[in-house]
Amino acid sequence: MQDLDANGITDAVIEQMAQTPDPRMREIMEAAVRHLHAFAREVKLTPDEWLKGIAFLTAVGQACSPIRQEFILLSDVLGLSRLVNVMHDATGREAAGTETSLLGPFFREQAPKIELGGSIAYASKGPEIVIFGQVTDADGKGIAHATIDVWQTDAEGMYDLQAHDPTVMEMRGQLACDAEGRFHFRTLKPLGYSIPMDGPVGAMVRQQDRHGFRPAHIHILVAAPGFRELVTALYFADDAHVDSDTVFGVSKSLVIQEALGLPDAPMPGIPSIRYDFTMSRDTAGGGGRVGSDPSRLVPAG
Predict the structure, then answer these.
(1) What angle is formed at CA 219 by the lines to CA 110 and CA 132, rounded to 5 degrees?
(2) Where residue 150 sits, what CATH number does that domain have?
(3) Using one digit for the tens of pLDDT, what is the confidence trace for 192-226?
(4) Domain residues for 252?
(5) Helix, strand, coil shares of the chain as percentages rounded to 5?
(6) Pairwise CA distance, residues 133 & 119, whole Å
(7) Domain membership flag for residue 156
(8) How do residues 97-106 score in pLDDT, each as one tens digit?
(9) What burial class does residue 184 get, using C-beta atoms within 10 Å of its C-beta: 0-12 exposed, 13-18 middle, 19+ buried?
């Protein structure tokens, strides 16, 4: 038995966990305890404040459902999801590799396959644009037949899972690049939207006087054998929230804008965007997307 003061309790907890068999779990939990205890000491956390914090975390858990993951939404709005992605990029992304962005909640396996030049708008209406470019390695060599999954909101800011019966797939598709890694497809210009604001995380965002909006964007997932899977998104420069994404997904290199008369545009009469994707070699023998389990819906979108 020992008398524990505000600093000794930290050492006691870490000592009790010292025999954790899994070394990575031991490392993570020891760091978590050190930082959580340091946080409590820094802000002089009171029992009443901690009980309110526990109530908030309990409400976050209670808001989760098979189609809503409030805890991941909390991670998103605190910037933790973005931080983990940035650190993951640094472990494997080659210098010229395309930056990643958040996967979001609306990725679905087995999206409808479209031919090069096809449209992912099967029923939705709105201003049409063309996305074209090339998938290359770090040396600029085209990656033959790389596959591209694309999904986005419609022109009213709704994903298919929000606007339709869950069996309907709309504003999403999968296409294969040609032998030189080139691709082009048609879509509608998407609309930005608010994260879910009706739960405990939304209440916290309002208390912080934040707007809660995501700028208009198009999700992209690029895959090819021997390369690290690329999960990213393209963000529209003319969206009012492109500089203040509430989940911090935007990078300068991912900002785009449609225009007429682009060189090499495959459909000159339609506003186009050229974006080339650069993939990193899968040196770890596994690659894999970050936070990609499609059974976990990530509310950031």
Answers:
(1) 95
(2) 2.60.130.10
(3) 999 989 999 999 999 999 999 999 999 999 999 99
(4) 71-278
(5) 30, 20, 50
(6) 16
(7) yes
(8) 899 998 877 8
(9) buried
